[in-house]
């Protein structure tokens, strides 16, 4: 294997099965991205998510099934689950991924954690981090996510403002305490 460092990236030469390579090329082409971008995305997913999924106990579940589950949960049960789990999973991911708890690491973990539900847009302006999570599951699920994030930021004495909550999306701002 040959490794060459070039401007914060690494040129890596490795061998993979031809059938895997062909499927990766096909996926990259369908997405309109380079094989390099796809490989970076796969590697990032692995180091930020997959390598800890088994240890934390994540199981794959469809959005449709989540929607059905949350349809039958009442608000009190959702609040209890959110309060119990809201800070646990992100904190576990944070301490498994980074050496210390700080605001920047927390924001990275919140984005990574939210990616499992769908598309996430994370922006920052003047110390306000905005996360828009397009999950497409249900309004109850948005309520659950809002409660879970509120529980986490309350534990950390941060300020969270919900800017949108509907059947497809949750949007919120968190202020950097600097």
Helix content: 40-55%
Through-space gap between termini: 44 Å
Low-confidence stretches: 1-6
Please give the domain count. Answer: 2
Shape: globular
What structural class should be given to the helix and strand makeup?
A: alpha+beta
Strand content range: 15-25%
How would you characterize the overall build of this protein?
It is globular and about 50 Å long. It has 178 residues and is α+β, with helices and mostly antiparallel strands. The chain has a four-stranded antiparallel beta sheet with strand order 3-4-6-5, with helices on one face. It has two domains: 3-56; 63-175, no CATH class. Helices cover 53% and strands 20% of the residues.
What attributes characterize this protein structure?
178 residues, alpha+beta, 2 domains, 4-stranded antiparallel sheet, two-stranded antiparallel ribbon, 7 helices, 53% helix, 20% strand, disordered N terminus
Brief summary of the model shown:
The chain is of the alpha+beta class and about 180 residues long.
Question: In terms of topology, how is this protein built?
Answer:
Blueprint: E1 3-6, E2 9-12, H1 18-31, H2 35-56, H3 63-71, H4 75-85, H5 88-97, H6 103-114, E3 119-125, E4 128-134, H7 139-155, E5 160-165, E6 169-175
Antiparallel strand pairs: 1-2, 3-4, 4-6, 5-6
Helix pairs in contact: 1-2, 2-5, 4-7, 5-6
């Amino acid at each position: 294997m040959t490794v060459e460092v070039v401007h914060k990236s690494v040129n890596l030469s490795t061998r993979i099965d031809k059938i895997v390579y062909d499927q990766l090329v096909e996926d990259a082409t369908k997405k309109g991205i380079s094989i390099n971008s796809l490989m970076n995305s796969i590697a990032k997913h692995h180091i930020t998510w997959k390598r800890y999924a088994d240890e934390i106990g994540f199981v794959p579940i469809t959005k449709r099934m989540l929607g059905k589950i949350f349809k039958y949960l009442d608000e009190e049960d959702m609040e209890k689950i959110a309060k119990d789990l809201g800070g646990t999973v992100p904190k576990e991911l944070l301490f498994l991924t980074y050496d210390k708890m700080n605001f920047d690491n927390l924001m990275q973990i919140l984005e990574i954690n939210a990616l499992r539900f769908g598309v996430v847009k994370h922006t920052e302006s003047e110390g306000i981090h905005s996360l828009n999570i397009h999950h497409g599951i249900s309004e109850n699920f948005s309520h659950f996510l809002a409660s879970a994030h509120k529980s986490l930021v309350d534990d950390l004495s941060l300020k969270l403002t919900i800017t949108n909550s509907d059947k497809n999306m949750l949007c919120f701002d968190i202020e950097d305490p600097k």
